[in-house]
Amino acid sequence: MRVGATGTASAVGHSSCSMATRDTRTGDLVGPSSARTGADEQSGAALGRHLNSLAELRDAVNACRRCSLWRNATQGVPGEGTEHAEMMFIGEQPGDAEDLAGHPFVGPAGAILDHALIDAGIDRRKVFVTNAVKHFKFEPRGRRRLHAKPNATEIEACRWWLTEELKFVTPKVIVALGATAARSVLGHTVTISALRGLPTPFTSETHVWVTVHPSYLLRIPDDAQRRAEYARFVSDLKGAKEWIARGAPR
Ligand code: URA
Fold first, then answer.
1. 132-149: per-residue pLDDT in tens?
2. Which residue has the higher pLDDT, 65 or 22?
3. Which long-range contacts (CB under 8 A, 24 or more apart) does 56-63 make?
4. Residue 59 CB: number of other CB atoms within 10 A?
5. Measured in angstroms, how far is the CA atom of residue 89 from the centroid of ligand 1?
6. CATH of the domain at 181
7. Is 9 near ligand 1, meaning CB less than 6 Å away?
8. Can you give the pTM of this predicted structure?
9. What is residue 96's predicted lDDT score, i.e. its pLDDT?
10. Which atom of ligand 1 is closest in space to residue 92's alpha carbon?
11. 10 belongs to a structural domain
12. Mutation probe of ligand 1 site: the residue of 61, 92, 155 with most atoms within 8 A of C-beta
């Protein structure tokens, strides 16, 4: 399998920077606009109300005002997949493609993840896929929107959503894709190499497996090294799956 050779996961040019969309909550036209005010920031229905289902969470994420990332994003991107999945995959944040589509991991990094899941014998339809941060953070460069890393405050603000998703899914294994996901789940900064490939206890029902983010693979320029790292990534996913099959504690 050829892992993509160029570009980064979310530094893909597009022509929709000024696109407006309709807010599903209010019916208002909204979009990446500096016209949105600080007052709006306080009005989110999702500032901490109790959620009864993943379906409710899906709608509420788009109304989130827990940090300011919603202002420039097209929409909030909630997790999706099987409700009681045994495996939950957590990425960093939606990229350009995900921001426009409203679904997680549908862009270049998603293509790598999809290949790796197939190579690891994991059916994406049977897992739950989400992100640590639900709105796309970017820096405009002409017509392009370049991925910008979420900061600690943004990760912390968005952890509320992740905790809710975890409450509904209660997976046996959380696969943290990269440092931001691992930090969000575990609540502190982690070194991927220290935890990689081993089950880290999380709750009595759930363990965390830390691995790299698929967009890391996209950024490796050397073909041989990229293939080797991809194989290691697949092996991490397989390890988590086989650990569940061997009877991971639930
Ligand atoms: N990168 C992520 O971390 N998540 C996505 O959904 C897409 C790219």
1. 999 999 999 999 999 999
2. 65
3. 57/161, 57/164, 57/165, 57/168, 59/24, 59/25, 61/134, 61/161, 62/23, 62/24, 62/25, 63/23, 63/25
4. 15
5. 10
6. 3.40.470.10
7. yes
8. 0.83
9. 98
10. 3
11. no
12. 92
Number of domains in the chain: 1
- Residue 249 Cα to ligand 1 midpoint, Å, equals 29
> 193: CA distance to ligand 1 center in Å?
21
**How many CA atoms lie within 13 Å of 8's alpha carbon, on the beta-carbon side?**
14
Among 80, 93, 137, 177, name the best residue to mutate to test ligand 1's pocket (greatest count of ligand atoms within 8 A of Cβ): 93
CA distance 127 to 85: 5
Q: From the centroid of its chain, how far is CA 218?
A: 16
In the reported structure, the alpha carbon of residue 99 is separated from the centroid of ligand 1 by a whole-number distance in angstroms of 10
Residue 103's closest CA among 115, 114, 118? 114
Provide the residue range defining the domain that includes 236: 81-245
Ordered strands of the 87-91 beta sheet: 80-81, 128-131, 87-91, 173-177, 207-211, 200-201
